[in-house]
Amino acid sequence: MVEVLIAPQEIERRVKELAKEIEEALPSPFVVISLLKGAFIFTADLVRNFRDVELDFMKVESYRGREKGKTKMTLEPRVPLEGKRVLIVDDIFDTGESLDFAFRWVKAKGALDVKTCVLLDKEVEKRTSLKPDFVGFRVPDYFVVGYGLDLDEKFRQLPYIGYLKE
Ligand code: 5GP
Ligand code: MG
């Protein structure tokens, strides 16, 4: 059973606010790099508030669990990043390893200014010193689904963010 944690109206309101915060800190034009698959719905809602952006996707996979640094890229963005301002968008900041990896990869491509935005920040111990520049909501240490986030590819379509309750 999925229990509602953040309702659709709350998400809608916060996404608009976030877009304002981002546009104040990051002048247009900039490149949005969305991390697949979890950030696809958040990105779709967020980018519709921006005036002038290029959009591309990236996929980073990490072996969940104990070992550090086991992160790899499985889809590279193709839009040139050199000298550009970039906003990396992810669904949830858990240990932080995927976003840290994406951030370093984008920097290494010669991006001028790299900012990071996550819909959710989970209250757990991090494995990086990176702090996302923009955070939608802080959530407790639950396994959350919906609004793009899945459990075995299910629940991504839910219009709210929920957590699984047995
Ligand atoms: P990190 O590298 O920060 O540990 O993990 C980030 C990725 O793990 C997220 O982009 C997401 O794909 C997945 N993840 C972490 N916590 C959750 C969660 O509570 N629910 C879901 N559906 N995915 C999560
Ligand atoms: Mg995922």
Description:
By secondary structure, this protein is α/β, with parallel strands linked by helices. The chain has one domain: Rossmann fold. It is 23% helix and 35% strand. The strands form 2 sheets. A 6-stranded mixed sheet has the order 4-3-2-5-6-7, sandwiched between helices. Helix 1 crosses helix 2. It is globular, with a radius of gyration of 15 Å. The model has no long low-confidence stretch (mean pLDDT 95). Bound molecules: guanosine-5'-monophosphate and magnesium ion. Guanosine-5'-monophosphate binds next to strand 5, helix 3 and strand 8. It is an enzyme of class 2 (transferase).
Write out key terms for the chains shown:
166 residues; alpha/beta; Rossmann fold; six-stranded mixed beta sheet; three-stranded antiparallel beta sheet; 9 strands; 35% strand; globular; binds guanosine-5'-monophosphate; binds magnesium ion
Topology, please?
Blueprint (H helix, E strand, L loop, with lengths): L1 E5 L1 H18 L4 E7 L3 H8 L5 E10 L8 E5 L9 E9 L3 H12 L4 E10 L11 E6 L4 E2 L15 E4 L2
Parallel strand pairs: 2-3, 2-5, 5-6, 6-7
Antiparallel strand pairs: 1-9, 3-4, 8-9
Helix pairs in contact: 1-2
Bound molecules: guanosine-5'-monophosphate and magnesium ion.
Guanosine-5'-monophosphate (5GP) binds next to strand 5, helix 3 and strand 8.
